[in-house]
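Project outcomes to date are best conveyed with an example. Our students and postdoctoral researchers have been running inverse folding experiments weekly, and each run begins with a structure described purely in C-alpha cells. The record below, which covers 184 residues, was selected by the lab manager from last quarter's runs and is presented without edits.
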C-alpha cells in the first residue's frame, strides 16, 4: 500500500546494511521535494524549527502506534488521544471520490500550512486504522532497517520492506548456515 502516512513514517531512515547510520529525510531537500509533490502537500518547511518539531512528534507518535499494532497489542489510550489532537485541525471539508468502483469519503483540510499537512498525515493513518487490514502491517525483518510496509501478498509472508533488505538478509542467513555446517 502506497500511503501518505507510510511514506512519512519511513522518512526516518536507518542504514539497512547495519552501519548504524541514520538519516532524517525530512531534512533532505530532494526527498522532501518528492514527498511534497507526490502527496500534494505544500506548506511544510522542516528547516523551520517549529515545523521540524511538529513533524518529528507526529512521526514518533505514528511509530509508537505501529509498534503496538505489529506487536499485536492495542494502541495506548494516550497515543490515541494524541492522534485525535492532530486530527482536530480546522477547517476541513468532506470530499467524495470514486476509484475503481469504490467510493471514498475523505476529510481534507481547506487551509494550507503546517497544521493542514499534519492533519492530512494523521488522517491518512486514521483511515488506515479504520479501513486497512491491521494484520498485514509489518516492520521490516531486517533489524537494522525497521521500515514500515503493508504486506499485500496472498500468503501474508512478506518479511522485508524491499529487495535490498531481502537479498542482504538471505545472504547473511546463507553465510550463517554455512558457518554452522563447517563447524559441525
Ligand atoms: Zn528493510
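After processing, the design step wrote out the following sequence:
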Amino acid at each position: 500500500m502506497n500511503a501518505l502516512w507510510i511514506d512519512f513514517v519511513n522518512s526516518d531512515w536507518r542504514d539497512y546494511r547495519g552501519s548504524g547510520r541514520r538519516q532524517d529525510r525530512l531534512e533532505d531537500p530532494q526527498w522532501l521535494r518528492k514527498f511534497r509533490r507526490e502527496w500534494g502537500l505544500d506548506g511544510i518547511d522542516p528547516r523551520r524549527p517549529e515545523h521540524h518539531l511538529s513533524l518529528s512528534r507526529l512521526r514518533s507518535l505514528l511509530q509508537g502506534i505501529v509498534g503496538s499494532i505489529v506487536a499485536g497489542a492495542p494502541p495506548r489510550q494516550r497515543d490515541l488521544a494524541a492522534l485525535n489532537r492532530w486530527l482536530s485541525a480546522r477547517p476541513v471539508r468532506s470530499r467524495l471520490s470514486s476509484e475503481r468502483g469504490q467510493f471514498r469519503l475523505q476529510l481534507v483540510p481547506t487551509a494550507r500550512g503546517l497544521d493542514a499537512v499534519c492533519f492530512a498525515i494523521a488522517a491518512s493513518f486514521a483511515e488506515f486504522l479504520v479501513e486497512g487490514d491491521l494484520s498485514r502491517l509489518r516492520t521490516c525483518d531486517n533489524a537494522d532497517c525497521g521500515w514500515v510496509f503493508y504486506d499485500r501478498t496472498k500468503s501474508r509472508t512478506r518479511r522485508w520492506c524491499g529487495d535490498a533488505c531481502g537479498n542482504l538478509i538471505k545472504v547473511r542467513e546463507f553465510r550463517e548456515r554455512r558457518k554452522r555446517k563447517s563447524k559441525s
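Helices lie at 4-9, 29-39, 49-70, 77-86, 114-131, 163-183. The mean pLDDT is 91. The training component of this project remains on track.
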